[in-house]
Write a structure and sequence with these properties.
79 residues, mainly alpha, rod-shaped
Length: 79
């Protein structure tokens, strides 16, 4: 894989058919890089949102359980 990358111009590797050193190839590479970054960024944001949602759900459950335990103790407390 690494050897293939060394022999293949980066522009062709990313599906840019222009000559490696011309402006069109650089523009194409720039666009491909931007798309790749945006895609990765979107995926990471989604993962963080999923973790946040999961954490918030866990927190709500813990609070509810804590309140239930407190209520039970208060109701069944015998000094």
């Amino acid at each position: 894989m690494v050897a293939d990358l060394k022999r293949t111009p980066l522009s062709l590797h990313f599906g840019c058919n222009e000559q490696p050193n011309d402006a069109a190839a650089r523009k194409c590479l720039c666009q491909k890089g931007k798309e790749s970054f945006q895609s990765r960024n979107k995926q990471q944001n989604q993962e963080m949102n999923n973790k946040k949602t999961s954490f918030n759900t866990m927190l709500k459950t813990a609070k509810k359980e804590n309140n239930n335990a407190y209520s039970y103790t208060k109701e069944h407390h015998h000094p």
